[in-house]
Design goal:
Number of helices: 14
Largest sheet: 10 strands, mixed
Order of helices and strands: HHEEEHEEHEHEHHHEHHHHEHHE
Distance between the termini: 20 Å
Radius of gyration: 20 Å
Helix content: 25-40%
Shape: globular
Number of strands: 10
Strand order of the largest sheet: 4-1-2-5-3-6-7-8-9-10
């Protein structure tokens, strides 16, 4: 069932921040809200009044599998618990095909924020639900997921706080008991899935949402290398194209944040060496740099008005002391003409950052004009009679056309508010 308190929780938390909390505390509270949002979405409810996913039944739930094998003993969540995934076996024509989806959930950039995170499902398997519903791109319902419904499907749970790119050499031995093992978790889960039959895959798609979308870009070529040379292997990043943009005060808030994540968890070792050689290492965590080195075909699903990016990159709370942007950030319908103009500039930055993708025939994109974040693993936004569309194509249809090379897909929506099919998140 939907939780009616989520919207009031978001609003209340933001108000409390302006009254009494510092930046660190707000970061922790934001993580808590994001964790709750993910939890409600996993239960087929959302923080928006517009989405109405079908209620999950017991038959829809896919059990959690933890990595118990001794050979994966060093692959651990932030708190030292075992990482895990949910697996649903394919059938019929999809028996030899694999679709992996990496869960999202932000990052932690300090001992304090990681210590908080390890007490949530985004840092510990102790707090993960036993079963989750597979919907959208993970659904085995043909009407909901026409091209991938029969494939073997895996949802990889996110519990490291660095997009599966942290390294244990960066762990602090000062009593915090934090484990930075994202890269080891990725390698362990790959090894386990390969032993379950993925090593014989004929077709495979690595996907992910948000921080999981970023992880998809980071590990895309490595995923390709694990699979047979004659297999069709591609990657799909959903709401994972985080921009290296200044906020409204002219500060590079996200750049500073990513720098801290990299320094804390030793992420540099998981990034392309060619990128590290040509620019500052922390910039190599931004997708606009990552895509320059990816050889495997990639599809980008991204809203031009990604509410997470607007709330954390363009207008982070510390930049809006007077609250001029408060209502606009919580509901795009409340944005003034001058604010919309700034949002259009943010959209232009996204389109400029993906211009190389537009030139590459093997790559695809679906950039709609919605105020939302992840769209592939929710039935209503992935593929339904009322899904967001560009040129009368849903996200699922566009991804399918691209993956199976039915046509070149470069779907770019007109600017907000032109698309009446959009689902727009409304926190007030």
């Amino acid at each position: 069932m939907a939780n009616p308190t989520i919207q009031s929780l978001v609003i209340s938390t933001r108000r409390k921040f302006h009254e009494k909390y510092n930046l660190l505390t707000f970061t922790l509270l934001t993580l808590a809200i994001f964790s709750l949002t993910l939890l409600f979405l996993d239960s087929n409810s959302t923080a928006t009044s517009d989405l109405h996913p079908t209620a999950a039944t017991t038959d829809d739930l896919v059990d959690l599998t933890l990595l118990h094998s001794p050979k994966y003993a060093n692959a651990l969540c932030l708190d030292g618990s075992l990482p895990g995934y949910h697996f649903q076996k394919g059938f019929g024509s999809g028996s030899d095909n694999w679709l992996l989806h990496i869960e999202g959930g932000g990052w932690c950039d300090s001992i304090e924020s990681c210590s908080f995170r390890k007490r949530t499902a985004l840092g510990s398997s102790k707090y993960m639900g036993i079963g989750v519903s597979f919907s959208g791109i993970l659904s085995r319902n043909r009407s909901q997921n026409p091209d991938f419904f029969s494939w073997n499907k895996v949802k990889i749970r996110y519990c490291d706080g660095a997009s599966f790119a942290g390294h244990p050499e960066s762990e602090f031995k000062n009593g915090t008991k934090l484990h930075f093992r994202g890269q080891l978790i990725w390698e362990a889960i790959m090894d386990e899935l390969l032993s379950m039959g993925m090593s014989n895959a004929k077709q495979a798609l690595l996907s992910g949402c948000s921080a999981g979308g970023l992880a998809t870009l980071i590990h895309c070529d490595d995923f390709r290398e694990h699979l047979p040379k004659d297999a069709t292997v591609k990657c799909l990043a959903d709401a994972g194209f985080f921009l290296d943009e200044k906020d409204i005060l002219g500060n590079y808030t996200m750049r500073s944040f990513y720098h801290n994540v990299m320094e804390l968890q030793g992420v540099e070792k998981s990034l392309h060496k060619s990128c590290i050689a040509r620019t500052d290492s922390f910039k190599c965590l931004f997708p606009q740099e990552i895509i320059k080195d990816i050889k495997t075909p990639v599809f980008l699903v991204n809203p031009a008005y990604d509410f997470w990016q607007i709330q954390h990159i363009l207008v982070p709370d510390g930049s809006d002391v007077l609250g001029y942007w408060r209502k606009c950030r919580l509901n795009i319908q409340y944005c003034s003409p001058s604010q919309i103009e700034i949002l259009q500039g943010f959209r232009s930055s996204l389109l400029n950052a993906v211009k190389d993708v537009q030139k590459n025939k093997e790559w695809g994109m679906f950039i709609n004009s919605c105020y939302i974040h992840c769209q592939t693993w929710i039935a209503d936004t992935w593929h339904s009679p009322t899904s967001p569309k560009i040129n009368n194509k849903t996200i699922a249809e566009s991804v399918g056309d691209w993956y199976f090379s039915r046509r070149v897909v470069k779907q770019i929506d007109c600017p907000y508010p032109c698309n009446p099919t959009c689902y727009n998140m409304k926190f007030i």
